[in-house]
Amino acid sequence: MAINPVGLMHVVDLEKLPAEEWRPGVRTRMRASAAGGAAQLCMFEQWCDPGHGAPTHLHAVEEVLQVLSGHAEVWIGDDRATLTDNQLVVVPAGRKHGFSNVGPGTLHITSTLAAPVFEAAYDDKRETPRRWLPA
What we know:
Blueprint lengths: L1 E2 L6 E2 L8 E4 L2 E7 L9 E7 L4 E6 L4 E7 L2 E5 L2 E5 L3 E5 L5 E5 L5 E7 L7 E2 L13
Antiparallel strand pairs: 1-2, 3-4, 4-5, 5-12, 6-11, 6-13, 7-10, 7-12, 8-9, 8-11
C-alpha cells in the first residue's frame, strides 16, 4: 500500500495483495479493512470453486454481495435466489445468509461490510472465524 505525502489517500494495488485459502475451494483477497486504514467498511473478493462458497452465517452489520462472474445461489433465511454477472444483493444486519457456487466455472464475488473488521457467527461451529484487524 502506498500513502501519498499528505497522508490522506491510501492507494491499494490489488495485484500486489495476497489471496489466501479461506476454506477448501475458496480463495479470499482483502481489498480494504481496518488493517489497511479503513474506518467504516471492509471489502474483500473471493474465488469459489464449483459447489463451494460461504456457509450460513451472520454479521452484526449490513453486507453487500456482488457477483462479478459466475453463478451464486444466495440465501437469506429461507429466501433463495441465483445471482449472475453484475448482480448484487443487500443482506440486512443480523440475518443468517450464505452462498454457493452453482455454476460450472469459478465464481468471482465481492463483499462489502459496513464495519472495518470482518466478523461472522457461523451456524457450523467447526467453521474457523476470520478477522482482519490492524497490525
